[in-house]
Specification:
alpha/beta; Rossmann fold; 4-stranded antiparallel sheet; 7 helices; 28% strand; globular
């Protein structure tokens, strides 16, 4: 599903080169729930940008769902992002004056995909428990519900992976648990999820935790969860 081979990322600041990633090799199989952790400056945001096809490696290869995306053009990367990756960010990034249903429809509109758009969007909302909130504005929803709409929007194109970048960062503890249980349930249904976080209690929902430090993999821990395991 996701394979990185000797990936480096070097940023040029004037005459100074900054190595954000230093030879990362990582394989994430289909259906796995992986949390990527690290302190500020560890390289986790850079790695997220590469996995999300928002940036490209300086060296190395990145294979996503059978596509070598290491040297694609911007238009090709945009195509991959729209069809292969569902994004969930810390900020919900919902359009305030647009109802939940239309927010969820947006990726399909951008892709020019009119096939059963309304039905697919309603199904995505139902899958996150918000089938009865389709006609509500974001301001009429709680923070947890807004993030659920964002998850539905990420799922509507049926992406190969769901990439969640600090998805609970703007939520209270109860709403954070609500979102993480939702992500866990989606994973148990077969969805591949890559979670970026700095919070151990959030990472505890994942089957696997990859920790970065100074642009390299510090540790790679696997802890398969039983389907009935209760995570606080």
């Amino acid at each position: 599903m996701i394979t990185l081979e000797g990936v480096t990322k070097v940023y040029q600041t004037g005459e100074i080169e900054v190595a954000a990633l230093r030879g990362i090799s990582l394989h994430i199989p289909e259906g796995q729930f992986v949390a990527i952790m690290g302190a500020s400056g560890s390289g986790k945001s850079t790695l997220m940008n590469l996995i999300g096809c928002l940036d490209q490696p300086t060296e190395g290869r990145y294979i996503l769902d059978g596509y070598d995306v290491s040297n694609l053009t911007e238009d090709q990367l945009a195509w991959i992002r729209n069809r292969k990756i569902g994004f969930v960010f810390q900020s919900f990034n919902l359009i305030p004056r647009v109802k939940a249903l239309h927010n969820v429809e947006m990726p399909l509109i951008y892709a020019g995909d009119a096939r059963d758009r309304r039905q697919r969007s309603l199904a995505a909302l139902a899958s996150v428990g918000l089938g009865n909130r389709a006609n509500h504005l974001p301001s009429e929803l709680s923070g947890g519900q807004q993030q659920r709409v964002a998850v539905a929007r990420a799922l509507v194109t049926n992406p190969a992976i769901l990439l969640a970048d600090e998805p609970t960062g703007n939520l209270d503890s109860e709403s954070s648990l609500e979102i993480m249980r939702l992500l866990r349930d989606l994973n148990q249904e077969g969805r591949t999820i890559v979670l970026i976080t700095h919070e151990p209690d959030i990472a505890a929902f994942a089957q696997r935790v990859v920790r970065l430090r100074d642009g390299v993999v510090l540790s790679d821990e696997r802890r398969p969860l039983a389907l009935n395991e209760v995570v606080p």
